[in-house]
Amino acid sequence: MFIEVVKSKLHKVTVTEANLQYVGSITIDEALLEAANMIENEKVQIVNINNGERFETYIIKGERNSGIICLNGPAARKCAVGDVVIIISYASMDFEEAKSHKPTLVFPDTATNKLI
Question: Which residues are bridge partners to 84 per DSSP?
Fold first, then answer.
């Protein structure tokens, strides 16, 4: 039996941009992606602390150390610049393997989106 578990989480980053005129996705600072063990095109769930929205999209790699968290396309309607979000990725794994799995949890500075 396989189950989905949390693989990675960026906890409380601040949305820096919202670009409605884009096909869709979330652009994330490359340094944050590496720290969280996330990759470009990976599916993620976005949880907006400010308004309770929860939605899924995929990652686009942003400029390293820029602090960018940009919602693109329709996702831009789910968050406003300045909103604080949690970005979560999941992995499917065998039930026994999941029992010992340890997710990668990253807690950046919410004001700057930089690694602490």
Answer: 14
Contacts of 110 (CB under 8 A, 6+ apart): 12, 13, 14, 84
Query: Catalytic pick from 8, 25, 89, 90?
Result: 25
Which value, to the nearest 10 degrees, does the dihedral of the CA atoms of residues 92, 61, 52, 89 take? Answer: 10
Q: What percent of the chain has pLDDT over 70?
A: 100
Known active-site residue 25: yes
Active-site residue (options: 58, 66, 89, 92): 58
Q: Which 3 state secondary structure label does DSSP give 95?
A: helix
pLDDT of 105 over the 90 cut:
yes
The model's pLDDT over 5-46, given as tens digits with 9 standing for 90+, comes to: 999 999 999 999 999 998 879 999 999 999 999 999 999 999
